[in-house]
Amino acid sequence: MAAVLTESKEACLAEEKQDEEIDENDEVAENTATKKKKKKKKKKKAQNGAPKIQTDPPTIPISELFPNKNFPEGEICHYKDDNLWRETNEEKRALDRMHADLYAEIREAAEVHRQVRKYVQGYIKPGMTMIEICERLEEAGRKLIKADKLNAGLAFPTGCSLNHCAAHYTPNAGDKTVLSYDDVCKIDFGTHINGRIVDCAFTVAFNPKYDNLLAAVKDATNTGIRESGIDARLCDVGEAIQETMESYEVELDGKTYKVKPIRNLNGHSIGTYRIHAGKTVPIVKGGEATKMEEGEFFAIETFGSTGKGVVHDDMECSHYMKNYEAGHIPLRVPRAKQLLNVINENFGTLAFCRRWLDRLGQTKYLLALKNLCDSGIVDAYPPLCDIKGCYTAQYEHTILLRPTVKEVISRGEDY
């Protein structure tokens, strides 16, 4: 009996131990499962908090891609030797920090420009109508900048000037012009946040015979950027641009042309809601000796031509802009008053085109628009053309003369 009782006791103890081990295993399994659940939750949270990635075609506003407003800087350039002290001067660095909000606005507009032009460079091709090219660009631009009348949007109509036409052409409704393989097309568009404008342009050519023309103008624009800076004289910038551009030649159909700067086109200072703020940056020698100043924005743009190197008004007008200096001018035509209200509400002193008035539902407005132009309230800007049969190219960047450094706001990987 004693032996039987001992065995039973040992059996019971073994059974209890086994039960304890099972309980421990269950507890471990339960804890592991809980940890896995927690890990899964953490993973899910990380996915939800991940930064957004731009779609193709682009549709996500830049402000959502950079919720902390840390928008990418442009290219940072050092000033010349006599202004190098600015980089380490505490007072100038403090001024830089004071303008952080302004820099954020202009950099957001610049990032919109970069992403939109990358999109354009991907879809533009021979066979497309000029209207389709412009409207796709403008649709993407409005989405990325979250267009809101005068608070944010496109700063001026999309220029898509072809061949001998150097600037200020955008198609009006009904224009059936089609882009061809042998065309040289200047894509010039602007973006703005609270009136802080980024003005930037590039040239598209599919036929490699134009490569040297494009290279000349791009090099000239980069020369202008390099020579610009606080205390730089505008005439000196223009002279350097001309020297660079005229060092290039281009051979077209067996004939060699010297690339000429278009002497009556130029870069310009940019103000808030004002694309041309008063100072001009020539692209030939002999300009004014006026100096660039700290805190100024400039559009450094150059135009090269195989023609005469001079442009004149030609073709049907599409670009208009309210005169920045015009005060109150009484209007007697009710339709002109109504159209002016639409312009004030949607564009202010920024440039606009007839397609944009169409988009806002305006109809039969040409007489009213003419009345505003005749009254001096609105100025017309017809296309600017060199001689027929020649080819023109354009490159442009917006720069900011910060207290410490020069920032090429619109610089991108493309140019």
From TrEMBL:
E.C. no: 3.4.11.18
Cofactor(s) the record lists: Fe(2+); Mn(2+); Zn(2+); Co(2+)
Binding locations of substrate: 168, 276
GO molecular function per UniProt: aminopeptidase activity; initiator methionyl aminopeptidase activity; metal ion binding; metalloaminopeptidase activity; metalloexopeptidase activity
Biased composition (Basic residues): 34-46
Domain of life of the source: Eukaryota
Region (Disordered): 1-62
Biased amino acid composition, Acidic residues: 17-29
Sequence ranges of Basic and acidic residues compositional bias: 7-16
Catalytic reactions on record: Release of N-terminal amino acids, preferentially methionine, from peptides and arylamides
SUPFAM superfamilies assigned to the protein according to its UniProt record, in alphabetical order: Creatinase/aminopeptidase, Winged helix' DNA-binding domain
Residues holding a divalent metal cation 1: 188, 199, 396
Domain Peptidase M24: 105-304
Cofactor note: Binds 2 divalent metal cations per subunit. Has a high-affinity and a low affinity metal-binding site. The true nature of the physiological cofactor is under debate. The enzyme is active with cobalt, zinc, manganese or divalent iron ions. Most likely, methionine aminopeptidases function as mononuclear Fe(2+)-metalloproteases under physiological conditions, and the catalytically relevant metal-binding site has been assigned to the histidine-containing high-affinity site.
Binding positions for a divalent metal cation 2 per the UniProt entry: 199, 268, 301, 396
Signal peptide: none
UniProt keyword annotations, A-Z: Aminopeptidase, Cytoplasm, Hydrolase, Metal-binding, Protease
Cited function: Cotranslationally removes the N-terminal methionine from nascent proteins. The N-terminal methionine is often cleaved when the second residue in the primary sequence is small and uncharged (Met-Ala-, Cys, Gly, Pro, Ser, Thr, or Val).
Name of protein: Methionine aminopeptidase 2
